[in-house]
Structure formats: structure tokens, C-alpha cells
Design a protein that fits this description.
single chain; 489 residues; mainly beta; Porin; 3-stranded antiparallel β-sheet; 24 strands
């Protein structure tokens, strides 16, 4: 009977949400509304019910209270990000075996369902299900590595499945959790809240092992996290997946370092932040907000790391196989605060330094939701160079920076939204490249209804390469335009 009442309440909440426009809201961890729990006012109904819009004037949510105060609850959120993209292809690009200098595609960058709740004073459950990078080539090539036909219907999977225990009641000092989780080290962008991204997309290089020895940045982990005074911390021991299970043919053993296909060791990671002003949202495991749209005053310094013994291998001239450790660390500063509380204007800025050691001459090309299926070009020790790919990951040093400016609220009139222009820069000095690499993005967010309804126009400019002995040398640049429409509740 409870299940029937819960389902009916959620459906009623969705109907109400569809009929009532929401106002701009402060984002929180991952896809969720703000982390601060809302208490029910005295005298409200004592039995649990679906709550839509009762958590304050600034938010609507699909929330089922498990006790009278609302401190125990269960919540559901939905996110969809649709891309329309025009891309200048990298040299040699083919689409279904036909050369293409330019491509236009429509895709789903992310589609997610999130379910989580504080079930008791100490017990927290978090589950996320969805898919990523779903375009017309989602099931390409026509056959998987084992020779069976590919299937475009199996793209969705569990991103997270975590049980967490709050050690001290009503205090965030220590939370212990285990399961499939994005609780990571290295940086805030290694565990981004995808619904609240300031720019159109995150710097994916910070998700250092994405789809190599993890599941879209998630790992089977045991972790501790919390906030003590101005310190926000998370530490984890993870059980990484073998690279052979990532759905692609593993790179052959060569003089270029890559993830080892023999042996298995645990991975250790941590991230520590010093928060000078307001505390960041800390409700859901790991996820860090992109921008609070001026609703909080945030300035943090952070440092993080990921390390794993004998995670990488390569072959030296003597034909000996050499195993090396994976060692990654970063230092960064993050700013997100209002500039004028009367008008609602705000600024978002981040600058970080990343020292990345994947072993000698490691380099990985990657193109987000790549619109191409193959290439006729050949670069030494490199694969997946077609479409919109560039050397995103590598052994070396990276500086990443971003800045955005939120214009005054109701720029176009009451309830008609505002704008937030932004710029991003990734500058890398990788061993395999003859000179430093730079990728630039500029864009404009139209915040129709905060992060709940958002339209983004983004232009990216990236380098292209040719062989220079065993290294790669830049030969020019290419660009892509993307329009993204995000809907989130």
C-alpha cells in the first residue's frame, strides 16, 4: 500500500511541477537541489507525502518525506542534456567509411535519473542511473570486440550505487560509504555536479582514468568524507576495473606507457579543501557544484591526488616489460560568489595546476561524444584521433582555468531569465607532443530558469597533429559549435 501511495504522490508531484514554473534555484551536489535539508513548518500533515515546492519559494522538487519534520526523506531528480553540434573534422576523419570534412549531429550528452535519501538519522542511500554520449554512432562499430552485433539499446547503466553512514547525528564531521561511486581525489572536476556546470561541459581531463579503469569516472570504493570547520575532505581506497573490460581493444604493449593488462592493485586517492566563506554542499557523495549562481559566497583552496602501484606498463628497448606507478596530483583555487546582491550578478572562476604521471610518453586522444567512426590518418602510438578528438590526457603538466560572469537576474524581464558568458582554457605540456597544447572554449548560457532550464551556445578551438618521429607535432587547428539544451528537475 505504501508503494502505491508513494507512486501516486510522485506522479502528482510531477504533474504539479509541470503546471507551475519554478524560479531560479541554487544548485547542489550532482543533479540534486541544495544540500541543506528543509524542515517542515509546525502543524503540517503528520503522514509522509510527496513535496513539490514546499521546500521554499525558490525550488520545486520530487520529495517524499519519511517523517514529520522532513529530516528523513527520499528524493528523485531527472536530467537531460541535448546537443546540436557542427564540427570541423580532424584530418582523415571518416563517418561510416565515408570521408567527412565537417559533421552535424544530434545527441544526448547526459540523461540521468537520480534517487537518494536520508532514510534514518545515520543511513543515507544514493543511486544514479542513466546514459552518456548517445548520438547516431552510439552503437558503432557495427560489431563489438567479441564479434557480436552492437546494440544501441544498452547504453544506460548504473552510475552510482552507494550506502553511506553518518557517524555523528546531524553533523557532517564523518561519513563512511561504500559502493560504486564518483567520490574521487585529484580535483573538484574529477567529481563534477553535471546539472550545475558553469560552462557547457567540464574539463574531462580531470576525470583522469575515465572509461579506462573506471566506469565513467565511478569506481568500487570504500571512502570517508566530511566537513570539519573550514576543512572539506574525502579519502578513498578504490578497486579499479581491468582495462580489458572497458569495451575497447586495449592498446598493445609498446614503448609508450599505457594501463597494464596484468596484475591488480588498489588505488588510493584524496581531495582536501579549505573553505574561507560559506561551506559547499555536502549532501550527496562526492559531487561538487559547478556554480551556485550567486546564492553562496564560496572561495576555496584545494589539493588532491590519485596514486596506484604498478598501474601502468611499457616496453623498453631491451624488450623488457616495465611496470610504473600512476601518480597524479593538483592544486587549485575556486571562486563562486555574488557581486551585487540587489541585482543578482555573480562571478565564477577556477584555476588549477595538474601534475600527471601516467608513465613515460602516455598520451590519450579523446573526443566528447565523437561524431566520427574512423580515420585514414596514422599517428604513432595514438588511436581515436578522428572527429573532434584531441590529446586530452597525457603524462606532463596541465593548467586549467575558467571564468564566468552572471548578469543581473531577470535581465529580460520578470521570470524571463538571464545570461552568463564564460571562457575556458586547458594548456598542457605533454611528453609526447613537440610543443605545448592549448584548447579554448567560449560560450554563453541563457539561464531560462536557473539550471532547471538552460540553453548554452559553446565554441571550442582545438589543435590537430601529424607525426614527428615518435612524437606528435601541431599542424593547425579545428573548431566546433554546440548548442545544448538542459532540462532538470
Amino acid at each position: 500500500m505504501k508503494n502505491i501511495l508513494f507512486a501516486a504522490a510522485l506522479l502528482g508531484g510531477m504533474s504539479a511541477a509541470a503546471q507551475q514554473p519554478t524560479r531560479s534555484q541554487a544548485p547542489a551536489d550532482t543533479l540534486a537541489p541544495p544540500a541543506e535539508q528543509t524542515q517542515r513548518p509546525p502543524g503540517t500533515a503528520t503522514r509522509p507525502s510527496a513535496i513539490v515546492g514546499t521546500a521554499g519559494a525558490d525550488k520545486n522538487e520530487l520529495k517524499y518525506n519519511l517523517n514529520e519534520s522532513g529530516s528523513h526523506f527520499f528524493k528523485v531528480t531527472f536530467l537531460n542534456q541535448t546537443w546540436l553540434r557542427l564540427n570541423q573534422s580532424n584530418p582523415g576523419t571518416t563517418v561510416n567509411q565515408v570521408p567527412k570534412e565537417n559533421t552535424f549531429d544530434i545527441g544526448l550528452r547526459r540523461t540521468r535519473i537520480q534517487m537518494f535519501g536520508q532514510l534514518t538519522d545515520h543511513v543515507f542511500l544514493y543511486v544514479q542511473f542513466g546514459m552518456n554520449n548517445f548520438n547516431f554512432l552510439n552503437a558503432f562499430p557495427s560489431y563489438n570486440n567479441n564479434g557480436t552485433p552492437a546494440n544501441r539499446k544498452i547504453a544506460a547503466f548504473f552510475h552510482d550505487a552507494v550506502g553511506e553512514y553518518l557517524v555523528f547525528k546531524n553533523k557532517d564531521y564523518l561519513k563512511l560509504g561504500a559502493g560504486l561511486t564518483i567520490v574521487n581525489g585529484l580535483s573538484r572536476f574529477s567529481q563534477p555536479s553535471v546539472s550545475s556546470i558553469m560552462s557547457m561541459d567540464v574539463p574531462v581531463f580531470a576525470q583522469a582514468t575515465v572509461d579506462q579503469t573506471d566506469e565513467f569516472s565511478r569506481k568500487l570504493s570504500l571512502y570517508a568524507r566530511g566537513q570539519v570547520g573550514p576543512i572539506d575532505y574525502r579519502v578513498a581506497v578504490s578497486d579499479p576495473f581491468p582495462v580489458q573490460t572497458n569495451g575497447a581493444t586495449p592498446a598493445p604493449l609498446s614503448s609508450f606507457s599505457n594501463f597494464a593488462q596484468k596484475g591488480h592493485t588498489k588505488q588510493f586517492q584524496g581531495l582536501f579543501l579549505y573553505q574561507f566563506f560559506d561551506k559547499e554542499a555536502n549532501q550527496t557523495p562526492g559531487y561538487m557544484t559547478g556554480t551556485y549562481l550567486g546564492k553562496k559566497k564560496i572561495f576555496n583552496l584545494e589539493g588532491g591526488f590519485i596514486t596506484q602501484k604498478a598501474a601502468m606498463w611499457h616496453r623498453e628497448a631491451t624488450a623488457d616489460t616495465v611496470y610504473t606507478d600512476l601518480n597524479l596530483w593538483s592544486l587549485a583555487a575556486f571562486l563562486d560568489m555574488p557581486l551585487n546582491r540587489q541585482t543578482g550578478s555573480a562571478i565564477n572562476a577556477y584555476v588549477g595546476y595538474f601534475n600527471l604521471n601516467y608513465g613515460p610518453n602516455y598520451l590519450r586522444f579523446n573526443g566528447i561524444m565523437n561524431p566520427a567512426s574512423g580515420t585514414t590518418a596514422s599517428l604513432p602510438g595514438a588511436s581515436g584521433t578522428q572527429g573532434n578528438a584531441f590529446p586530452m590526457f597525457g603524462t606532463g603538466k596541465v593548467v586549467y582555468a575558467q571564468v564566468g560572469y552572471l548578469l543581473r537576474q531577470d535581465l529580460f524581464g520578470a521570470g524571463k531569465g538571464t545570461l552568463m558568458p564564460y571562457a575556458q582554457m586547458q594548456m598542457a605540456d605533454y611528453q609526447r607532443l613537440t610543443k605545448g597544447m592549448s584548447v579554448f572554449n567560449v560560450g554563453l548560457n541563457y539561464l531560462i530558469n536557473g539550471h532547471n532550464g538552460k540553453l548554452t551556445l559553446d565554441y571550442q578551438n582545438r589543435p590537430i597533429y601529424e607525426a614527428a618521429g615518435t612524437q606528435l607535432a601541431p599542424t593547425g587547428r579545428r573548431g566546433q559549435f554546440v548548442v545544448q539544451y538542459q532540462v532538470f528537475i
